[in-house]
Amino acid sequence: MSWDQVPGHGLGGHLKTADGHLSYGAEAQPRMGFFTDTSVCIGCKACEVACKEWNLVPEDGFTWTGNSFDNTGELSASTWRHVAFIERSVRDGDGIDQWLMSSDVCKHCTHAACLDVCPTGAIFRTEFGTVVIQDEVCNGCGYCIPACPFGVISRRERDQGVEHGLAAHDGGAHKCTLCYDRLQDGMEPACAKACPTDSIQFGPLDELVATARERCEHLVESGVESARLYGDDPDDGIGGFGAFFLLLDDPEVYGLPPDPVVTTRNLGQIWGAAAAAAGLVGATIVGAIALAR
Amino acid sequence: MTEARSYYGQPILKEPVWKPEIAWYFFTGGLSGAASGLAAAARLSGNDLLARRALLVAAGASAVNPLLLIKDLGRPERFLNMLRVFKVTSPMSVGSWLVAGHGATTGLAATLDVLGLCPRLRTTAGVASGLLGLGMSTYTGALVADTSIPVWHDARRELPFAFGSGAAATAGAAAAIATPARAARPARALALAGAVAEVAALKAMERRLGALVGEPYHQGASGRYAKLAKGLTLAGGALLAVGGRKRPGAILGGSLLLASGAFERWAIFKAGSASARDPKYTVVPQRARIEARASR
Ligand code: SF4
Ligand code: SF4
Prior knowledge:
heterodimer; A: Alpha-Beta Plaits; 2 domains; 15% strand; B: 76% helix; binds iron/sulfur cluster
């Protein structure tokens, strides 16, 4: 199945032929994405820095978390690439003999919960099939924040300190745009450009998935049995990720959910229950009036 | 069940950034919605006194409701952006339209009623506000259910019933307080039926969530609020049932039920935060799902 034609299963912003980025008609571009191959990440954080520079993302606190070399902690409104560090001792003897590093990012979901629940229409699907928040529309309602199955989005609170950078501390929700402005000019996103090991690869999703599958097979054959792809399956709970990963352990070890499902997959049950409950409230009111005169 | 693995025990999901106002927003929205339903039904049955008082309760609550919502926005000056689109996938979008329509019809009906003008238009507006009010009483359950927070999303079939019955209980209680006892019998009946239904809906929710995902309702702030709410429901319900025909009984019993409704909204709100904070609530059920698929 082509990545451009993952069928939608609901209403709203799901990427599908009738309603997704292909509704751009002649302006639609091939679906673009990221393949983050964590097996070659060296933890240099060039991606974090390049992203901040290009997108004028304000500082997110100059602190150390104490968790290895992680100093940004998690993805947030002001951290659009987050490099996770996991130190481990897997063989006998003391000392660290395995170091997992991974640059996390918004998944640009095929079925994006954030886009579906946004009440202002601030979040939209671009002609590249990516998911972007429009600063000038977002009213900071915060609904997208707990909706995202990956905890990618947060809000820049207004009292966060000194103003600097575009849209800093504006009370709005922010996340990775997959460098929408660069894409429109035919450039690759800043993080992919800066990554010295090609751990972050950018390109048409179809091609990236093919490359990634080959790479994963190669790793497994050469003895790295723990290598696995995360987010390359269009049949998963969010219809596949626009930004997917090669991991060397279970997703939860990297702070990723092992089996994410878009919230709106269950929209029928949700509205069904709300309608039935509203009917019950109505019936109770009528019953109370009729029986208790 | 093996221990859930995680990244330094950090959350996977983001906690809602909503401030305490949102719990009150759930409370006033539900109260206002069910009260306008009661007002409309009372009007059609000829109980004009109850209709008037319930309508005023509904109008009062529906006036503060949008203010609470606006206060919660990161960019309050952009409240109207809520009404640029209508999206069924977003219960907050549907809810904004409900709040707008309900507020307008309730305000109109209440104003006409107080001024004694255009009784036909007043009744029509009142019935419209009553019908929209039914939606108001349950959509907030859909709103929290349409998130990735396990304790909310996994209770998606029960939450609207919990919110709706809680709305009925608090609306009945408020109307019973505001209305002279002789005309308030239907309000007391609604309060009691709502309280019983709420207890049942919360039980069903607990059963659905199970020990692990439902844990926040038995721990910490949400656990305390949930327990308090349950106790207040029982006390308030009993008082209203036994002594509700007299003013003092109606006022005291009704107040306890109102407090119970507020605490229950708080319990649900706080449970959501706790559920987002601990990655095990996300990882363990998802792992179980993967294993179930593998063994199929
Ligand atoms: S990962 Fe989260 S923020 Fe990114 S597109 Fe998916 S739902 Fe939206
Ligand atoms: S915070 Fe902004 S982007 Fe997020 S759901 Fe609300 S309006 Fe949409």
